[in-house]
Amino acid sequence: MPDDTLRVMCPNLACRKILAVPSSARGKTVRCRGCSTSIRIPGLKSEPARPAEPPPTAAKPAA
Ligand SMILES: [Zn+2]
Question: What is the mean pLDDT of the chain?
């Protein structure tokens, strides 16, 4: 069983079908097969968040 399958629930309360989508569908929109509702597949962590880089130190330590 491949790990790269995501399961999303249809947001349509009258449907609520569990859809299995490939991880390649992240950030894209798929259509529910049950009710044709467009479902947005979230990315890895909502947004491509960059690791917080420390600001460049302006004050250099006096050698
Ligand atoms: Zn649906």
Answer: 84
